[in-house]
Amino acid sequence: MTNVTKEIKSFQDAINESTRQAIASSMWIQEQADAQVRSYLDVRKSYRDEATKLAKGMTDQFFANQEAFQKLVQSSISLSIASMRWPIG
Question: Which pTM does this prediction carry?
Answer without folding.
Answer: 0.56
